[in-house]
Amino acid sequence: MPAARLVARCHWSAVVLAALLVFTGSARAEDGYALWMRYVPLPSALAAERSEQLQEIVAPDGTPTQRAAREELVRGLTGLLGHAPTLRTTIAGDSGLILGTPQTSSLIAPLQDELAELGNGGYLIRRMRRDGRDVILVAARQDIGVLYGAFHLLRMLQTGAPLDRLDVRESPRVALRVLDHWDNLDGYVERGYAGRSLWDWQSLPEWRDPRYTDYARANASIGINGAVLNNVNASAWSLAPDYLVKAAALADVLRPYGIRVYLSARFSAPIELGGLTTADPLDPGVQRWWQRKVDEIYSYIPDFGGFLVKANSEGQPGPQDYGRSHAEGANLLADALAPHGGVVMWRAFVYAHDVPADRTTQAYTEFKGLDGAFRRNVIVQAKNGPLDFQPREPFHPLFGAMPRTPLMMEFQITKEYLGFATHLVYLGPLYEEVLQSDTHARGPGSTVAQVIDGTLEGHALTGMAGVANIGNDRTWTGSHFDQANWYAFGRLAWNPHQSARDIAADWAAMTFSPDPAVVQPIVDMMMGSREAAVNYMTPLGLHHLMARGHHYGPGPWVDGGPRADWTSVYYHRADGSGIGFDRTASGSNAVAQYAPAVAARYGDINQVPEALLLWFHHVPWDHRMASGRPLWDELIARYAQGVRQVQAMQKTWATLNPVEPGLARLPLAIDPERHAQIAAYLNIQRREAQWWRDASVSYFQSISSRPLPAGESAPPHPLLYYQSLQFPSAPGDGR
Amino acid sequence: MPAARLVARCHWSAVVLAALLVFTGSARAEDGYALWMRYVPLPSALAAERSEQLQEIVAPDGTPTQRAAREELVRGLTGLLGHAPTLRTTIAGDSGLILGTPQTSSLIAPLQDELAELGNGGYLIRRMRRDGRDVILVAARQDIGVLYGAFHLLRMLQTGAPLDRLDVRESPRVALRVLDHWDNLDGYVERGYAGRSLWDWQSLPEWRDPRYTDYARANASIGINGAVLNNVNASAWSLAPDYLVKAAALADVLRPYGIRVYLSARFSAPIELGGLTTADPLDPGVQRWWQRKVDEIYSYIPDFGGFLVKANSEGQPGPQDYGRSHAEGANLLADALAPHGGVVMWRAFVYAHDVPADRTTQAYTEFKGLDGAFRRNVIVQAKNGPLDFQPREPFHPLFGAMPRTPLMMEFQITKEYLGFATHLVYLGPLYEEVLQSDTHARGPGSTVAQVIDGTLEGHALTGMAGVANIGNDRTWTGSHFDQANWYAFGRLAWNPHQSARDIAADWAAMTFSPDPAVVQPIVDMMMGSREAAVNYMTPLGLHHLMARGHHYGPGPWVDGGPRADWTSVYYHRADGSGIGFDRTASGSNAVAQYAPAVAARYGDINQVPEALLLWFHHVPWDHRMASGRPLWDELIARYAQGVRQVQAMQKTWATLNPVEPGLARLPLAIDPERHAQIAAYLNIQRREAQWWRDASVSYFQSISSRPLPAGESAPPHPLLYYQSLQFPSAPGDGR
Asked: Where is the Glycosyl hydrolase family 67 C-terminal domain (chains A, B) (predicted)?
């Protein structure tokens, strides 16, 4: 703002400012709504330097996506630099920023071939001299690439990255980067810990909540380009015209941000919605119904992405109800979608009606033989591990095992098995661990990431899905730190080869402060947090020890009920002699589903990583661990370590308290409101980590009949107490 | 702010201001979160005048409630006047504001007797000269009265009321002014249309969301002094220690604002929670269990308010399960609460297992004979009408019929039968109509308001409950205009003799703008809105014609199912000859439950108000109405009128659009964001009003077999179409 105008506006500003600061109470506080797009002022020296470079902006506004990029840049720069940039049609001064495509800018037109190489969504950011001017280009072949590039530049500004010798070339490594919302039409979110669904079906299509646009902005900022609006445990009603009109309104809001809408399809919809007597995929009437339904959907949503399907799993209908295969089921929908360019994301998370000897083997058993049987617009979506989003699992054996079939990764962002929203658990390391796992499918170095990005087998149809942790909570994700999991998922979906630590550092800098004195301790907390949860919940390869149904809190004693594979004892198999699930040749032989090199390592008790020991082996309590301790002692030690790790996070967090003397040290420190909430949540986590430790130790001691190692305190209550605790209203339970 | 400091801060202000305006996107917009406490700047001339008067403030901060009053005043004045007031221990300049009690201020001490007359929560606001100074006093006997007085003064400032000759004396006419939250422990709100429960049980007690404080502020601003935290269809778990700890944390937050916490008690809790084999109120073990449970509750919440109970109604357990009366059930709990000063709010909303000849007679039948049988700390809570929160009902016949029993009013604020959150229906006129109804219990002029405020029968225990419309939606109530219903309930609970129009005017001035050009049209919309809904849903005394279960949309054809009194045909009784429920002596004789003068009027087809005609009479289609039209024509005309009334609201609203040329005319006009949302909601309401009209006309025509009056258009679809519509995911359904 020119100085003269500033003075003229001075009185008005001061008055309005004061009003703004108070008039809605906490509404003006840092409540987390802004996510990583806070755009708070840079330190003044840096702001001055950047202002000089970025004073003038050339950015087209001929399309909705162009306007989104331009508006975001104006919003971001105004916040970061303290004043709005000047929008020009050409750079008039010494320097400036030019956004666009070869069609919108004569300066960018010569880059056409280079941009084409970057593909759909790719972009470059380059600093160059042109006509004596110092120019930064954000250029792409498509508008959406320009929007992604604008967010990239804003991220560099927010994190304090240098802008000299700028030469960024980015293209997405994965085609479908999708959030799966397990949202029911009545607003309930299955496994949701962040309030109710973001989609207010009742006021759609008339009212398009501005929050939908902010959701789209956040996703575009990390490259997410798809959203499945409804739960995989789907209601057929989501395909009824009334709801399609509403979904179309959402699609209209998301479209400028490059986000396509998908729907979960209930396989029996032809019966429930269409009045047919069968949903048999080979029935011509069923095929006609789906074709008409898909045509109808595209009449509402011309760029509809396609269907996500959970079939023949946990009671959902599917092709096996008619003696047909998953491929025949998927192909039914794929054929209907193909003329419109839509895809089917067919989930491999299946398990049989009859309780199997080892549930983790089911998906491989059912799908391996179908390799090559799917249409070209089908992608099979497998969870990261063979069971169900545990704190730690080995990678899913299907990865690398279906070379003729595109495989899509399904991560869970919402923390169903990881303490819900109140536990600080950064999932970046979990995602990274899976993606960096070596399937050995084509020899050493055949990582899961290469399966997912299509390079291993040469697939163009690639995808990564994240089960969203988003609801209408003001923080979006139920806690401030859970925003990092949404963020990390998006970044890794864009490029699965990135480092979880680097992503955490970007996120912390944007979300809290770029000050290294803030970023460093926060990143350290985040990077250790997942291992802490593994330790206090399911150390050494244990899994599925959570309480029944809602999965809140410990339940290693869970037994009985409708299915053995919904119990804890089925998985830990602890007895007087030892603990763990024997998945070697002497047991379920699940290990044989991996490539020989992997199977050999996992199947050998002396080679398997200790982190997966009890996943693959039933191990005697006396087994000598790397630490030199017997397994029993090691197990107890890990539980205690988990609790200590949470205590350490609390200590670290306390050093960042802005109302402590430390404030002077941290000019861009954390605001008191967010600090207080996170501190309270860490208190919950510490209390519950202790509960996990006490209950688990108490239970396993009742099985092992061994004394606690020296220095380990006895649980304060008898086992019956922990077993008696009930939480009938724990959030997110499936229903 | 002094000019010198202002200039020094100028640059900083402008920069931060710019940042504030952008850095969180829509978070800074007028999103409704601030409710009627927006405290936006007054017009500058008025601000200058008020600033002079209110520059100096003396306000104690020795207790939490004192601090709440002081902080609210600082927040409010800073926003309204553009700068913070100066806090002093005595007024030093020519004028100022003094808050306090006889204990905190020597200037107030002499008013002790006068303040005592105003009772608990009462206050006075008076302008006077003292020691040559022009002083405004906000004085009360108790801190809470001072807080109420502070809010009153802020309301006067917000609405532009004159401050000269200020002499306000206020005391609450009703003792218990309570919000009933029908919130389940899993966050679901029964009949809730504003997101999920405000109470995040999962993060309590560690995390006390600042929103709880804003909830308390809003309630205190209108005098609400109690909150029932959980659904009347109660889970026994809400009385378990884990939840009591959480409720205690909420009580801690609400206490400084004068709000007591209550809980809905499940009558069978001794069985479900205590492991007893009976919940018989005469069983000594049951009595001991409740006494211990109540003692335990008070150990957590020393000022616990008491229990709300729904017993032997809609499947809830109760004393009749053991052959005991409602009085015996209520007294069981009352005896346990009495030593601690707690009360029982025992609901009269009951109906028998067997479908009665006329459900509206049940409550009177069951309770009338119990008059005098309840303990002194029991208050019987009756809904405003004898059925269930319909758009229009006559007042409940119990009002005036139980002179020896305190009766509490239960209004519904959430619009279960009035279009949910998307219909603009201001309930002030509904409340007012009921409160001003004359029971004739002690002769003419025995209004329901006098029953409720205790003056008719001399009861000290008095109360008014409102079933809350509050959830975690950003607007709190699911829409901007539904905030007015929360507001009006609170104001009428404080003083049931107030005018709904005056309250609407206050609310509109604070919520949108004090400009009469804004207030006038908005108040007109509000005051007509309830009659519009009556017309397009249930004109002329019709009732309970909503679709089954969720009550979303028209269902006059609803028939069959588990109970006749859950159907529409049970209530409208339309046939070839006429329509309406004969509740005269020739029918159910429900009219006889009213005092003779009332019964005579309602029971006479020539005297009954047309608005209640079909409530009390089965009327031939040819019956001549006041308009001169036959009933059939009148009925159809009313439906059409309802639609036209919504269209008229849309027209009015369009004139307030700030992006239209009208902006110049309205300097403090409505912000674009709220205007847009309300416009979208009015679109929904218009569409649904038309749907109501078309479906109802279509159905009733199928019964009456009469032609539509000239000028009335035929419904665009056949009746079967309207009957085929299904909404399995409509919000708020009981479950």
From this structure: 477-711
CA-wise closest residue to B733 among B182, B180, B181: B182
Residue-level pLDDT at A17: 35
Answer whether B79 sits within 8 Å of A22, measured CB to CB: yes
Query: Rounded CA gap, B228 and A282, in Å?
Result: 56
Q: What is the C-alpha end-to-end distance of chain A, expressed in Å?
A: 55
Residue B34 touches partner A, C-beta closer than 8 Å: yes
Closest chain B residue to A725 measured between Cα atoms?
Answer: B242
Question: How far is it, in rounded angstroms, from Cα A169 to Cα A123?
Answer: 6
Give B288-336 as a DSSP string. HHHHHHHHHHHHH-TT--EEEE--SSTT---GGGGT--HHHHHHHHHHH
* Cβ contact B151:B220 at 8 Å: yes
Architecture in CATH of A176-511: Alpha-Beta Barrel (3.20)
B3-170 and B176-511: same fold? no
Residue A502, number of CB atoms within 10 A of its CB: 12
B58 — phi, psi (to 5°)?
-110, 115
Q: Which residue has the tokens 């709904």?
A: B500
Contacts of A37 in chain B (CB under 8 A): 25
Contacts of A40 in chain B (CB under 8 A): 19, 23
Annotated catalytic residues of A are 314, 388, 416
Radius of gyration of chain B (CA): 27
Domain boundaries, chain A: 3-170, 176-511
Residue in B7, B420, B673 closest to A210 by CB: B673
pLDDT value of position A243 = 98
CATH of A3-170, one of 3.40.50.2300, 3.40.50.620, 3.30.379.10, 3.40.190.10: 3.30.379.10
> Which chain A residues contact residue B473 at CB under 8 A?
472
Say whether residue B733 is in contact with chain A using an 8 A CB cutoff. yes
pLDDT at B12: 32
Q: Where are the alpha helices (DSSP H) in A282-391?
A: 284-300, 326-337, 362-367
Q: How far apart are CA A679 and CA A654, in angstroms?
A: 8
DSSP structure string for B494-521: H-TTS-HHHHHHHHHHHHT-S-HHHHHH
Contact B730 A186 (CB under 8 A): yes
Q: Does A29 touch chain B (CB under 8 A)?
A: yes
Model ipTM over 0.90: yes
Where chain B has pLDDT below 70, the residues are 1-28, 660-669, 735
Q: What's the gap between Cα A247 and its chain centre?
A: 22
Residue B660: the pLDDT is 62
User: Could you read off the pLDDT of A611-652 as tens digits, one per residue?
Assistant: 999 999 999 999 999 999 999 999 999 999 999 999 999 999
Q: Which helix (H) or strand (E) holds A176?
A: strand A176-180
Query: Which B positions 474-533 lie with beta carbon below 8 A of chain A?
Result: 474
Residue A578 and residue A400: Cα distance in Å, rounded?
33
**Which residues sit opposite B263 in a β-bridge?**
B307
Give the whole-angstrom CA distance, residue A467 versus residue A455: 24
Question: Measured between CB atoms, does A659 come within 8 Å of chain B?
Answer: no
CB contact under 8 A, B18 and A680: no
Cα–Cα dist B363/B398, whole Å: 8
pLDDT in tens, B147-177: 999 999 999 999 999 999 999 999 999 999 9
Residues of chain A with pLDDT under 50: 1-28, 665
List the 436-475 stretch of A: residues with Cβ below 8 A of B.
Answer: 472-474
Question: Taking the model in full, what pTM does it have?
Answer: 0.95
With CB atoms and an 8 Å threshold, state whether A184 touches B729. yes
Cβ under 8 Å to A: B residues 405-434: 420-422
Q: Which residues of B are catalytic?
A: 314, 388, 416
Residues of B whose CB is below 8 A from A41 = 15-16, 19
